[in-house]
Structures are given as structure tokens and as C-alpha cells.
Amino acid sequence: MDRQDALIRLTNRQINRLNQEITLNLRNIEQLRTELTKLKKDYAEMVVAARKNQSTQNRLMFLLSSESFWQAYKRMAYMKQYAAYRKQQGEQIATKTKTLQQYTNDLVAQRKDKERLIRENRDAQKALDTVRARQNSLVQQLKRKEKSYAAQIKKKQKQQEAIDKEINRLIREAIAASNKKAGTKTTSFVLTPEAKALAASFAANKGRLPWPVEKGIVIQKFGTQRHPVVRTTTIKSNGVTLSVPARAEARSVFEGKVLNIVQFKGSNPIVLVQHGNYITSYKNLSKVYVKKGDKLSAKQAIGQIFTNKDTGKTALQFSLFKNTTPQNPALWLYQMK
Fold first, then answer.
1. DSSP letter (8 states) at residue 335
2. If one looks up domain 2-142 in CATH, what number appears?
3. Whole-prediction pTM value?
């Protein structure tokens, strides 16, 4: 719609420019016609005068009647100048007539261009009006169903919060288990030297980690934001949602160990992978290729991503935590915006 608006504005500018050129050409044509009329009148008077002169006194008699050689010479020069002036007048008439014809041809072409632009403008305006009418209809439909959509979004948001709460509980359980094993009591993972090295390597690759899918685009960002359709509703996300091709696979963004596989009521399988004190979460899988305790390498396939049969959409929800604190994946994954 913005492009159509821009096209209409551009066409209007072109029409205005043509109007200016047409007005200028009309002025030039009027001026040329006035000049041409005067030239033709002067030339006609000159021809009439010349003919009258020839009938009463020819050139030879005009010269022989001179009182002196100097006067004869001056009369000869005068006749040459008069003849040259008549020729010049004739040439000016021909030139101005040609110029006038050119201006007239340009004017006809400009008027055709203007008519074409007006037709294009009219067609573009009709198309724009159709798009706007369709858009307004959709807006009205959305407004009528807004409450219903908002209720569905709210319900889905509660389900998501419940899933996030369960993931948080599982991470806290794993932290508690590591603390119990070490004989301490903290809110963070107690790591072995090997796990510390893994966590340090994971952190060192911040901003350079591979994406959890081979191909995909971000359709929902991290944090609190307006819903993309129902703009009056806000949603909160602990990660990012990636739209991917059908039958696409989720893959581990770094080497690690499968911490848990969650089959929460009302959701598809979720795989949690531990990288020292960092946890990555892969939600909305239809098939899972790994099991709890498996060691994974970077980019290893974890499972196939679920495709919604009703919408035909395939999407992976990816989250990243440091202990239990959610991190923005866009800051960790390579060139994610």
C-alpha cells in the first residue's frame, strides 16, 4: 500500500510537470503565432511595394536616374540590402513556422503522456482503494474477534508460563542435585573442572553460537512485546521463536549433555541441554532423537520440529538460561537480529 501511495504521488508530480510544460508550450506557440503573423504581414507589404515599384520604374532606370556615381552606388547597395532583407524575412517565416510545428507536435505528445499518466493514476488509485477497503474489512473483523483472540492468547500465554515454570523447576532440581553432591547450598550449579571449562568455552562464544536450526527466521523475539496481530495484547517470551521449513530438525548450539526431556501436558516434547552452568531449551518437537544423559556435539540433531496441521506452520521455540536466569538468544547466536 505504501508503494502504491508513492506511485500515485510520483504520477501526480509528473502530471504537474507536464502541465507546466504544456502551459509554457502554449505561451510559446501564441508568441510564435503573433510574431509569424507580423512577419507575414510585413513580408506581404514588402512584396506589394516591390511589385508596384517594378511597374513604374525598373531597376535600371532607378540606377540611371542617379545624379552621381556615388548615388548610383548607394542605390545599388540599397537594392541588394532590400533583396537580402526580403530573403531574411522569408527564412525567418520558414524557421518560425517549423519551430511552431515542433512546439505543436511536442504539445500533442505531452498531452498524450498526461492522459496516459492520468489513466495510470486512476488505475493505481482504484487498486489502492481496493487494498484499503480489504484492509479495513480485516481490521473490522479483527476488532469483532479481538476479545476472542485476546482470550486465546491469554490462555496460550498461561500455558507457556506453566511450561517455563516447569523448566525452571527442573533446572533448580539439577542445581540442587549438584549442590548436594558437592555438599554445598547455593542457587547456582556446582561444576566439576571439566564442566567449568565447558561453561567458560560456551561463554567465550557469546555472539558466535550457531543457530538451533539450519534455516529459519525470527518470528517472535525475546522479552515482553506486543502481539503481532492483536496489538492491544502483550506477550512475554523467555526465548525466541523461529519459523522453519517443514520436517526441519532442531540441533544443539554447543557441545553438552541432555539434562532432561520434558513431555508437559498440552505441549510437544522439550529437550533441555546443559553446557556447564548454561542450559539451552528446544521446544515444540514432534520427534526426539536423544535421551536423558546423552552427550551431544555442536550442531548435533536433537529432534524433528513439530508442524501444526491446521496452520501448516513449523516453528521452534529456543531459550537459553544461565543457571535459572533467561538470556536473550539474540545476544548469543550468530548474527541474530
1. T
2. 1.10.287
3. 0.58
